[in-house]
Specification:
The chain is of the alpha+beta class. It folds into two domains: 225 residues, 3-Layer(aba) Sandwich (Rossmann fold), CATH 3.40.50.300; 90 residues, Elongation Factor Tu (Ef-tu), domain 3, CATH 2.40.30.10. The chain has seven helices and 15 strands. The strands form three sheets. The chain has a seven-stranded mixed sheet with strand order 1-3-4-2-5-6-7, with helices on both faces.
């Protein structure tokens, strides 16, 4: 199935605005440096006739100027001159595209170890991940680092692309060997890849079209794998969580202030506060500048609320709806990673 790319935004703003965020799935592309992440995405755009007008000609001229015989598809994304000179991606790039099923935002994250923090910021915003592994090199240092960080970030939808299959003669035995390496390492950190796909980003095999070089592979192409991922529920679709940041007193009113992390809060709702288990009804939602017509607030908004009863509420308490209060516990588990 071919994907139809709607828009691409690199750091040089070569295209227009991104499509609507409705039903968008965010996928981060990660992996060891030079394993072909940017090339993979650049080829995807080309194979679907989705490069901006004149971009292909610009790319050909650039490759000729730099004395490169083969097309460097990574240049589609590596918009910084410094990146072109070093042949590495140093910042995250977002690419909007869609299949017949839905819209996507792909986050192209840097693979070089010096830019690991950039990779983390990109992956933290993703619903799913594609881990790119060079068929000739297999699992390398940054492959492991990136996979481990995906695990720490809680990403469960992880597919693996074994790239550069053309460089190993499209050999199914090499693919199986690398697949075993990947499964063994991911399994050791608690990750199970949903799919492992052999591709040639340079030639375009098994990205959008299946190509003719790997008939032995019976699984899904990359775009079919992306379509199989599930979209995370938006914050407004989750249970209400309203952590209290402070309690203000103004003009005789007692205003409980905080940021709504998930869910929707409306005037008239009954708020249940943990851990005190006290509850009261919301009489007004206060924002600045003042808007007396404000009767609803959603995840991401910082608001104040007034209540119909003077219950004990202080910084650190959590407001919720009575039917879906958080579970109270004094024990939790955490994985802590120190990234330098």
């Amino acid at each position: 199935m071919k994907a139809q790319i709607k828009a691409v935004e690199t750091r040089t703003a070569v295209l227009s605005e991104s499509p609507s965020a409705q039903q968008q799935l965010r996928v981060v592309i990660v992996g060891h440096v030079d394993h072909g992440k940017s090339t993979l995405i650049g080829r995807l755009l080309y194979d679907t006739d989705s490069l901006p007008e004149g971009k292909f000609e610009e790319l050909k001229a650039l490759c000729k100027k730099r004395g490169t015989a083969a097309m460097e598809w990574s240049f589609v994304l590596d918009a910084f001159q410094a990146e072109r000179d070093q042949n590495i991606t140093i910042d995250t790039t977002q690419i909007w595209f869609s299949t017949a099923m839905r819209e996507y935002v792909i986050i192209d994250a840097p693979g070089h170890r010096e830019f690991l923090k950039n990779m983390v910021s990109g992956a933290a915003a993703a619903d799913a991940a594609v881990l790119v592994v060079d068929a000739g090199e297999g699992v390398r240092e940054q492959t492991k680092r990136h996979a481990y960080l995906l695990s720490l970030l809680g990403l469960k939808q992880v597919a693996v692309v074994v790239n550069k299959m053309d460089m190993v003669g499209h050999d199914p035995e090499v693919f199986e060997m690398v697949s075993r390496q990947v499964r063994d390492y991911l399994g050791s950190i608690g990750l199970q890849p949903t799919h492992i796909v052999p591709v040639s980003a340079r030639e375009g095999d098994m990205i959008s079209d299946r190509g003719s070089h790997m008939d032995w592979y019976r699984g899904k192409s990359l775009t079919d794998v992306l379509d199989s991922f599930e979209i995370s529920l938006p914050p407004i679709a989750r249970h209400l969580r309203f952590p209290v940041q402070d309690v203000y007193r103004s003009e005789g009113k007692r205003i409980i202030v905080g940021r709504i992390e998930t869910g929707i809060l409306r005037t008239g709702d009954t708020l249940f506060f943990s851990p005190t288990n006290e509850q009261a009804k919301v009489t007004a939602i206060e924002i600045w500048p003042e808007d007396k017509s404000k009767v609803e607030a959603q995840a991401g908004e910082v608001v104040g609320v007034t209540l119909d009863e003077r219950i004990f509420v202080e910084r650190g308490h959590i407001g919720s709806h009575t039917k879906n209060a958080p579970m109270l516990s004094n024990v939790f588990r955490a994985n802590i990673a120190y990234v330098t």
